[in-house]
Amino acid sequence: xxxxxxxxxxxxxxxxxxxxxxxxxxxxxxxxxxxxxxxxxxxxxxxxxxxxxxxxxxxxxxxxxxxxxxxxxxxxxxxxxxxxxxxxxxxxxxxxxxxxxxxxxxxxxxxxxxxxxxxxxxxxxxxxxxxxxxxxxxxxxxxxxxxxxxxxxxxxxxxxxxxxxxxxxxxxxxxxxxxxxxxxxxxxxxxxxxxxxxxxxxxxxxxxxxxxxxxxxxxxxxxxxxxxxxxxxxxxxxxxxxxxxxxxxxxxxxxxxxxxxxxxxxxxxxxxxxxxxxxxxxxxxxxxxxxxxxxxxxxxxxxxxxxxxxxxxxxxxxxxxxxxxxxxxxxxx
Length: 333
Ligand code: CP
Hints:
- By secondary structure, the chain is of the alpha/beta class.
- The protein is built from 13 helices and eleven strands.
- The chain has helices at 13-27, 51-62, 95-105, 120-123, 127-135, 150-164, 185-196, 213-226, 236-239, 260-267, 278-281, 303-306, 313-332; strands at 40-45, 66-70, 79-80, 93-94, 108-112, 140-142, 170-175, 200-204, 229-233, 245-249, 288-290.
- The strands form three sheets. The protein has a five-stranded parallel β-sheet. Strands 2-1-5-6 form a four-stranded parallel β-sheet, sandwiched between helices. It has a two-stranded parallel ribbon with strand order 3-4.
- Helix 8 (213-226) links the parallel strand 8 and strand 9 (229-233).
- It starts with 12 loop residues before the first helix and ends with a helix.
- Phosphoric acid mono(formamide)ester binds at residues 49-52, 144, 152, 292-294.
C-alpha cells in the first residue's frame, strides 16, 4: 500500500511539521528543484477549481514533472466508484480500471471530488476518494473531497505560522451566511489541522450547523494530545473576543442535507448577523482574517475586512503551491 495524503489526521503531528518546514524551504527557494525528475502526476478534477488546479500544475512543473489533468465526464469517461454495480447506466468506466491504468503512467494521482450534498450517511464516508485510494498502487493526494481538504488546511497552518510565529494561537473558525448550503470539507480539515497543531480553537456556528460528530471526536482527541482546547460557540459576537485568527467559511446543515430549499429557509435568519465585518474584527486581538477562497464579498466578509491589512487570503492561496510541493516530494521520495 502506498502512503496517501487523504486527511491530515492520518499523518502524525511530526510529519505535518516536517511538511511545513519543507514548504517554508520551497517558499524561500532553499529546496532543490527537479525533484520529480520528469515523472508525471495525474490531476483528476470532478469539480471546478482555480487555486488547486493552477497551484498543482505549476508545482509539478517547477519540480521538473508533468501534470496530466483529467476531467471525468468531460475530457475522460464518466466514472463509477461503487463495487459490484451493474454498469448499465450512464457510467462508462470503473475507478478500478481508471486508477490502475493511471498508475502505469503516473507517479501519483491527485483527485478533487466534492460532496454532491444529497446523502449525508454516504457522503460522510468519502466514497469516491476512498475508492481511488483502495485501487491505487501510487500515492493519492486529496485535492478536496466530500469531507476533507487537507492541502488547504496545511497551507492554512503554514500561513498562521508565517504571520504569527510558531506555537499555540487563539483561532476562530466561524460559520458565515451564504445563499446556499456548501460542503464541509474546508471547515472539517481546518478544525482537524488546528487541533493537531495544538491551537486553541473556537468553532462558531448557529444551532443546527454542527460538524460531523465522529470527526469532532477525532478533533477533540487530537487536541487532547497536543494540549489544544476546543470550544463551540453560538454567539457570533462573543466568538471573536480576543482571537488571533479569524477563519470564515459557510457550510450546510447535516440535518437538512439533501434538502437545500429547507436549509436556505433555515439560514435566512442568520444573514445579517453571521458575516465577518469591521465591528467583529475589532473584538479580536489584532486578528488576521483567513478564507480559503473563492469568497463572496459582502456576504461572507465585508470589503472593509478582506481589503484590510489584516487579510491574509492571498498569502494563503500562494502557500497552497509550497505545501503541495512538500507533499508531492515527501510522497515520492
Ligand atoms: N481553496 C480552493 O481549493 O480553491 P479552488 O476551489 O479554486 O481550487
